[in-house]
Amino acid sequence: MTKDKLLIIDGSSMLVTNYYGNLPKQILFEKDEEKKKQHYDKILHAPDGRYTNAIYGMLRTIKKIIDKQKPTHMVICFDKTRDTFRRELYADYKGNRGDTPEPLKQQFMTMETMLEDMGFVVEYSDTYEADDIAGSYAAKFEKEIPTFIMSKDHDYLQLISRYTRLWLVQTKQETADELMDKYYGEFGITKKDVNLPDKTFEMTSDICLKEYGVSPEQVPDWKGITGDSSDNIPGVKGVSSAAAPLLREYGTVEGIYEEIEKAQTPAQQKELNKYWKESLGISRSPLKAMTQYKDLALLSKDLATIRKDYPIGKTLENLRVSINSQARDKWHKDLGIKSL
Known about the structure:
This protein is of the alpha/beta class. The chain has helices at residues 11-21, 25-28, 33-37, 53-68, 85-89, 102-117, 130-141, 173-184, 205-212, 219-226, 240-250, 253-262, 266-280, 287-292, 294-304, 325-335; strands spanning 6-10, 73-77, 122-123, 147-151, 164-169, 200-203. It is built from 16 helices and six strands.
């Protein structure tokens, strides 16, 4: 049996997590942006002044993954801009996010260049987001090689398939351990029995359905109704609890609206509400809101759908892990990173 496996890493998520995880407390707990800047000198940095706290944490994480999980093939995906095609669909997409702090912005560019020099396949785009790139890579290669995606972002749940699993990063190791106990404890399987990166839990299709009430392919529909505050995707306000039971019954957002459109008269609408309440367990009818905000529901689903048409010009062999040790050592020396 082949030991080969492809690991697709959400590089933006990993770098951001390591940035905030390695910030001085004077910055982490300060709310005033100007006061934060006064402590930038306390952020881990290279001899020449370049910030390295996120870079160091991410390099350490990748090294540990290569040593322990031993992926034979890797690709690391980054977001380059927020002005992707989704902004053209909805101008307020991710409009609730503040500016990226300068120390983090600087490390994005350094990290991408460093990883490329070290021999990793690094992908970013002016048009697509990191999750679209990851989804495209998984779709292209998952039937050739066991495929794993690593991210903290729940959008990636929709990429789980028969061939692809998601290493979903949790905020704390305790949360990952709790999920292990919840889904595998009855079988006597513990974290010692599985080979997973720190703070991660491996999501499968069955576990996604049990944990969130929807299957992976229904995640865009789910977000079409519930929205996503982190990306400023609106959804349909006030009906989040009805999303999962409606999707279990009708499959998709479009399927829900097909049923709604059959109920033209007040009597038919009353009967539909009764069915939802008695058969689906929906106590508060979402009919009025779903009808009023149909366009938003369909738009939100479209915004939440990961694209799989990012152009990939690489073969599977191009993704094979092969570290350029000279470039690695030079970068480590230049940035003053000694412990790796």
